[in-house]
Design goal:
The protein is of the alpha+beta class. It has one domain (5-92): Aspartate Aminotransferase, domain 1 (Alpha-Beta Complex), CATH 3.90.1150. It has two helices and six strands. The protein has helices at residues 5-14, 82-92; strands at residues 21-26, 29-34, 37-43, 46-50, 64-65, 74-77. It has a six-stranded antiparallel beta sheet with strand order 1-2-3-4-6-5, with helices on one face. Strand 2 and strand 3 form a beta hairpin. The longest helix has 11 residues, at 82-92. It is globular, with a radius of gyration of 14 Å.
């Protein structure tokens, strides 16, 4: 089951105020960017964050799962808890880099 547009918009509502929030459809699912950094992965109406040391303590009780086949295990973020979700994003945003632009292939 793919993520619905209503759900991705709900996710963005829940985290509003943490920076410039935008989302992009990728492979039928969504990546949520905060200040142009890929922070949240939304697959099958579930929100995932990378297992990084900076959030290990806060996410120790969180469920874990695989967002798609072949992916590494991620934490599942309780997006219904807006305050907690914003705290996690505030910890992740400084350590996640802005992706480098892809070089265009010369034909």
């Amino acid at each position: 089951m793919a993520t619905s547009v209503d759900f991705i918009e709900y996710v963005c509502e829940q985290i509003s105020g943490v920076g410039a929030v935008r989302y992009r459809k990728m492979f039928g699912e969504y990546m949520v960017y905060i200040n142009d950094k890929p922070i949240l992965l939304v697959c099958d109406n579930m929100v995932y964050v990378k297992e990084l040391d900076c959030i290990e303590e806060q996410m120790q009780e969180a469920e874990k799962g695989f967002p798609y086949d072949g992916a590494k295990e991620h934490y599942i973020l309780d997006i219904d808890n807006s305050y907690f979700s914003k705290q996690i994003i505030e910890l992740l945003e400084p350590v996640i880099p802005i992706p480098k632009p892809k070089k265009k292939k010369i034909k």
